[in-house]
Specification:
Number of strands: 25
Structural class: alpha/beta
CATH class of the largest domain: Alpha Beta
Number of helices: 18
Number of domains: 3
Helix content: 25-40%
CATH topology of the largest domain: Glutamine Phosphoribosylpyrophosphate, subunit 1, domain 1
Bound molecules: 5-amino-5-deoxy-1-O-phosphono-D-mannitol
CATH superfamily of the largest domain: Aminohydrolase, N-terminal nucleophile (Ntn) domain
Length: 593
């Protein structure tokens, strides 16, 4: 869950820092860079905290150097300290490495290397790689052979960028189960953990395959697989791949919420423009499989819940699974099942693990992802793309609506319903016009010690996502429950320090949901109802109301009722002085299990 980059060319330090900033969403507890100086020695700068810290530390230094690697860290093995920040250097100073992934057998390797007299200056698993390279250099005939010998010893997952002072004009890179992209332009060569982390001038890239070893020098990229030089497919970089600016917004999260309408339109457009043969292939999957397992994590899992509910409504038998559970406690899987994997990043290790498990069993898989260059997009049998555009904020917003939309579009296509959902009729602009009201309500939300989200049916699913959003970026303890479930336990937590946010968009549930509101009020709790129904107004039981626009089709509410909840989370986070884009302890792309 770290980001790695490498750059060869003018202004290497600045380029590395710029690229690292674009990967900061992958982890931001510490960062560092290594550059080869004019005497072929390695210079290191690293520090805890945001990338701006190493930027300040290296101000006016190393501006003439033309080769280096960098890293932004999300701590897995070893605390957040300067020593544990990457790059790590071999004892003799010959090799510097940056690593993304987990070396599962690092303790055994470390003990072996310690017996041979090597010393370690960090608690990380990654440092063993630098030292193994030093040890293997004694016998290997070339750096490529050394990297091969070294990575053969490693168990777990890795993408690695390596500097070797004996080849001072090259960067070496290799990977297993972690993404790595290489790009060369007229006057630079670079590598990054994601396409978005390549330099602005990059126009094309190659995606490395597991166990590829790349030797990167200015204008030349050589890739070896099992001693053979191989050609990897060159792919074009699109404008969307590198879209990484906040424009006039203060944070990526609010920018991304404001992009929801366009993201939904683009997703709908891409779905309707699928080639007839590709669409048929996907519809055939549904025609031949009635049992569906949907697998994902976090927000994407919540989109699966919405998807399952829609697919159930047209006759499918669906189960949703949290990926980290599915892999180790799988349901009864056979060739009558279709498995659907949903992931914004397409890099979530838990989800990838499940996809591979299912593929090994020969079961058909369909993936829904937002990143075309991702591992999930690369390895899936069938693919549907959301077109949310780059999502940078840790809290997923526009990708969620787009994932839900794909399920609406699929359900319509499968049931041959010609009434294609109109994004304009979702009236998202009306919600965005109420931003002042939402911001004022958020000031109130910020005063509560705990916040519950409740709803029935489809609304209970929106409640789950609303609760995740709020706790993720405001740190206010929050839970969500189907409204009727509250009285079976959680009601004991309701008191005058709690707020219950009630999602109420389905007419048939008004009466029973309002019973839950009465039960909360009777225990001294506060209530905020999010609803399109005009007749629901503040009264002795309802403290606050937020009115949604009225939609013709009640089933479409999940696509918009989440928007005020995303905005509540955003403004509450601001109210509490938290950076909503970078909540503590989290990272955007969770590439470790
Ligand atoms: O990239 P993915 O959709 O696979 O990510 C899954 C979760 O890690 C992600 O949705 C997470 O829950 C978000 N930070 C929630 O806002």
């Amino acid at each position: 869950m770290c980001g790695i980059v490498g750059f060869i060319g003018k202004n290497a330090k600045t380029q590395i820092i710029d690229c690292l900033k674009k990967l900061e969403y992958r982890g931001y507890d510490s960062s560092g860079l290594a550059l080869i100086n004019n005497k072929d020695k390695i210079e290191i700068i690293k520090e805890t905290g945001f990338i701006s810290n190493i930027e300040n530390l290296s101000n006016n230094m190393f501006d003439d150097l033309e080769i280096g690697i960098g890293h932004t860290r999300w701590a897995t093995t070893g605390k957040v300290t300067k020593e544990n920040a990457h790059p790590h250097v071999s004892n003799n100073g010959r090799f510097a490495i940056v690593h993304n992934g987990i070396i599962e057998n690092y303790e055994a390797i470390k003990s072996d290397l310690s017996h041979k007299g090597y010393t370690f200056s960090s608690e990380t698993d990654s440092e063993v790689v630098a030292i193994l390279l030093e040890e293997n250099a004694k016998t290997a005939k070339s750096v490529i052979e050394n990297i091969k010998l070294t990575t053969k010893i490693l168990e777990g997952s890795f993408s690695l960028a390596i500097l070797d002072t004996h080849s001072p004009d090259k960067i070496f890179a290799t990977k297993k189960d972690m993404p790595l992209f290489v790009s060369a332009g007229a006057d630079f060569a670079s590598i990054a953990s994601a396409v978005v982390g390549l330099p602005h001038d990059a126009i094309q890239y190659i995606m490395l395959e597991n166990h590829d070893i790349a030797e990167i020098s200015l204008n030349t990229i050589k890739v070896w697989q099992n001693e053979e030089m191989v050609d990897r497919r060159v792919q074009k970089i699109t404008k969307d791949d590198l879209n990484h600016t906040m424009h006039n917004h203060k944070h990526y999260m609010i920018k991304e919420i404001f992009e929801e309408q366009v993201a939904l339109e683009k997703t709908a457009e891409a779905f309707s423009s699928l080639k007839p043969s590709a669409k048929k292939e996907i519809l055939d999957l549904f025609a031949s499989h009635k049992r569906i397992h949907l697998v994902a994590c976090g927000t994407a899992y919540h989109a699966c819940l919405v998807g399952a509910s829609l697919l159930e409504s047209i006759g499918f038998d669906c189960s949703c699974h949290i990926a980290s559970e599915f892999k180790y406690f799988p349901p009864n899987l056979n060739d009558k099942c279709l498995c659907i994997f949903v992931s914004q990043s397409g890099e979530t290790a838990d989800t990838i693990g499940c996809l591979k498990l299912v593929q090994e069993k020969g079961i058909k898989c369909l993936s829904i992802t937002n990143v075309e260059s991702s591992t999930i997009a690369h390895i899936s049998d069938h693919l549907l793309m959301t077109k949310a555009g780059t999502e940078v904020a840790v809290a997923s917003t526009k990708a969620y609506n787009c994932q839900c939309l794909i399920f609406y579009l699929l359900t319509q296509a499968i049931s041959k319903n010609n009434q294609v959902i109109s994004i304009k009729n979702l009236k998202i602009d009306k919600i965005l016009q109420t931003i002042n009201q939402i911001s004022k309500l958020s000031q109130i939300i910020a005063t509560f010690k705990k916040v519950f989200f409740i709803g029935r049916g489809l609304d209970s699913l929106t409640a789950k996502e609303g609760s995740l959003k709020l706790k993720e970026i405001t740190y206010i303890p929050s839970e969500s429950y189907p409204a009727g479930e509250l009285k079976h336990g959680t009601l004991s937590l309701v008191d005058d320090e709690s707020l219950s946010i009630v999602i109420l968009t389905q007419k048939s549930t008004i009466h029973k949901t309002m019973n839950a509101v009465s039960e909360i009020k009777a225990r001294g709790g506060f209530t905020l109802v999010v609803t399109p129904f005009d007749e629901i107004q503040p009264n002795h039981e309802i403290d606050y109301v937020f009115h949604l626009p009225i939609l013709k089709n009640e089933q479409h509410y999940p696509l918009i009722s989440i928007i005020p909840l995303q905005l509540f989370a955003y403004f509450t986070s601001i109210e509490k002085g938290i950076n909503p884009d970078k909540p503590r302890n989290l990272a955007k792309s969770v590439t470790v299990e």
